[in-house]
Amino acid sequence: MKLHHLRLRGIGPFRDEVSIDFAALGASGMFLLEGPTGSGKSTVLDAVVYALYGSVAGEGASSERIRSQFAEPSTPSEIDLVFETTHGVYRVLRQPEFFRPKKRGEGTTKQQAKALLWRLGSPELIPEVLADTAGQGAGLTPIASRLDEVGREIGTAVGLTRAQFTQTVLLPQNEFARFLRAQTGERQEVLQRVFGTEIYEAIEKQLEQMRREAAGQVDAANAGLAQALARFVEAAAIDDDEVRAALEGHATGHRFEELAQLTGQIGTDAARAAQDATARAGTARSKEAEARTAAEAAQTVLQRIDRRRQLDQLAASLAAQEQQAATARTRLEQDRAAQPVAGAITRRDHALTLQQDREKERDTALARHGEAQPELVTLARRDDALDALAAATDEATSQAGELTALVELEKGIPGRRRELTERRDNLDKARVGLAGLDEQIQARPGARAELVTARDAARAAGDGLGDAQTAAAEATTRLGQARTAARLAEQVTAAKSHADTAQQASAKAAEAEAEQRRRRNAGLAAELALSLAEGDPCPVCGATGHPEPAQPGTDHVSAEQVEAAEEARRGAESAASAAREKLTLARSQHDQALERAGGLDVEAATAAQQQAAAAVQTIKAQQAEALRLEKALEEHDKQTQALGARREKQAVAIEGEASALDAVTTALTEDEARIDKARGEAASVAERRAAHTSRARAARELREALVAADQAAARSRELAAEVELGSFEDDAAVRAAVLTDPTRAEFEALLTRRATDQARHTDGMAEEGIAQADPSDNARAAAAGQVEAAREAVTAAQAVTAATDQEAGRRAATAQATTGAQQRLDGAVAQVRAVGEKAGAVVRVADLATGRSADGDRIQLSTYVLMRRFEEVIDAANVRLAQFSESTLELVRDTGKRGARKTGLDLLVIDHRTDETRRPETLSGGETFFVSLALALGLAELVTAEAGGVQMDTLFIDEGFGSLDPEALDRVVAEINRLAEHGRTIGVVSHVGEMKNRIAEQIHVRRTPRGPSTLTVSA
Length: 1019
Description:
Elements: E1 2-9, E2 18-21, H1 22-25, E3 30-34, H2 41-53, E4 78-85, E5 88-95, E6 98-101, E7 108-111, E8 114-120, H3 126-131, H4 147-158, H5 162-168, E9 170-171, H6 178-181, H7 184-195, H8 198-235, H9 241-252, H10 256-320, H11 322-369, H12 374-380, H13 385-461, H14 465-522, H15 524-530, H16 559-596, H17 602-679, H18 685-721, H19 731-737, H20 741-765, H21 777-849, H22 861-884, E10 889-894, E11 906-911, E12 916-918, H23 925-946, E13 954-958, H24 966-981, E14 985-989, H25 993-998, E15 1002-1007, E16 1013-1018
Parallel strand pairs: 3-14, 3-15, 9-13, 13-14
Antiparallel strand pairs: 1-2, 1-4, 4-5, 5-8, 6-7, 10-11, 11-12, 15-16
């Protein structure tokens, strides 16, 4: 993948738009991204990763930092990246989410993240795309416009995940060395994430699960076999311990052929025993049937004798009741003849009584109405009284009906008068209220003018919030930098003290070394004399005689002591150099912080920040007041409109009510005139209508009384003509012949029982064998003895049958249960065989993959794969490391065991200068940097190969060069140049001053005094 162009706005410390033309910048193959710490160098890398993957580069860093704190609250941030892969040239435009002020009201609302992706037809379109700063696509249609679609398309085009990308294209600050120092578990996680080997762990877990499931299935199958065998033993009722032991032994040892042979023999024996028991039960049932037949015959003889004796008793009872039955028949015949005549006499007497009652009621009505309605009584005594009274009723009813409506009208007159008075009073009050509304409406314009004036004044005072907020933010930043500068000033003082102490220690160490060398030189003659022997030539003068050899003094110094002093001097100088570097760095950081604070101390910066914050709050308060007054003005206008509408509505209502009252007054006057006319001489219309109603009621009652008396007399005459005595002398004889209901029922029941008993006797004597039966006592006693003997024979036969049936049932149930249990046992055996064959294969594969197999090194599949990948990474890294370290250092995989198990993912470093094996923790700062860089480059090379040979034409290395000495820095830069010679563009991110002299093409990032950073390119 190759980066062509990057454009930023409102990203990190970059408030304004900045752009980088990577194609032109990397013409020589290498460029430098430099600037002070915290100025925004890493933000450029974050922007590249965010454009591609929607998140920043640093592991664990929050994507919220991508949004610039200096950006305008309502202006979106934007990243515009043009890149090229083997799939083509692409342009991606992303806007991270942010919170903007609400368009209405106070507060903020979230603006969701956006993304657009275009594919360019050819690289020639890149200049046209770069000119499209509005992000419209330069006339092209986006191939993706949703976040998930853009991520999917870029993943396909680049061919790397975010983790792989940051390990191959971006080597982030402080992160590419983490892989070198990582513990075994951390390194394993990195390799798994980069190479995607989690699938092998998933396979291990799946196989382990399958092994557990297979073991569970085997246990379940064996348990099922044991249960099936126990049920077979229970079903076959096996109580022989030797047979039980044989069955259990065959099942436990999986001797399934012997088990099947033994269970088959047991099943055959059970079936044969069941057949024998069934035959014995059949013989017993036949004998029981013969005994039952004999018992039934004896019982029949006894029953016929008892039946004949009962019938003879019934015949004697019928003879004794003969006279009583004759009397009952005679009395019932007389009652039937008297019943119709007695009924006619009763109806005649009742009609005569009713006639007398109706005549009394008629006379009472005439007397009651004689005083109040004498003319009606006169009409009732005429021959045509009924017609005359009917006409009088109709006339009075008609007159009362005509007055009914006027009665209701008369009742409502007083209420209508009161209502009219109330409405007139209310109308007067409404007119007073209308006048009050007119006064309120006239006062509204003045009040509105006052609100407008106050609102405009608040608006004017509330202008400039953006500038005030920017000033407050800058003041806050300066305050923070002032505090940082104060803290760093203390660090400068401490660093200077430490540097002075280290310099003094270095000077003392140099003096001590010089003294040791002087003393050693002074004692060299004595040291040489110690090695002289008589006759050997002196290495100084050549003489073979040594009459007075020099003797060592008490302060003689050996070569080892000199070397120790030299080593102490070097250590002191190194410590002094490190202390000076720390002092320089502390001073630089302090100067930068003081510059960013605008030269203010903490007290002055605090006062400025408080003043700026107070200005923001004052402007916000004025804006809030302007908003409140605007709302008050809107409410005032609404109330004015409401008052006008209310006044109009009330005026219309008053006019309508006045017209309505005139109409109501006219109608009331007309109705009062009608009432006066209808009342006549009566006190009221209601009284006059009551008089007519009373006359109609009296005429109707007199007519009804006359009609009822005439009808009762006619009915009495009709019923008297219906009475005929017949054979009876008079009414008394008829009444004497009629029976009471209880007596009649008693006679009828007597005759019914006698007829039933006679029929029973006749039918009983006609039954088979009854007439021939001997009813004597001797004959019955003999028959009863025969019945008892037959019953005893049946009982004995039943006992034999029950015993044989029970035995046959038990044998049959045992045989059937044995057959079923044997079938289930065969099924359990088949299940054990099937599960055992399948589980064996699963367990063998699982043991091999999870390192439990007895064969090989017992290494897990996932560990084995990572070990091979790790070796490939180490081989690729050693190629770079040989160049960086002049072949003095080499990486090897530690094949020993660390911790609880062997992982094969630990690192060792061979130092060829001493042929010693070192832990990565013992490397110096410079060694750690270029070993880590070599390891990262090797990992990147292998990842691109694993990703289908993805070619990464652009590579960034972020920081770490400050730990190298000039010679090591030369080697590393030379190797990076060799990478660039193969077509790659290498971007080096550093603030080390030496790098500026080595790399011509540079991107300069600087933070301005106001806070935001700027970016310039020099090529």
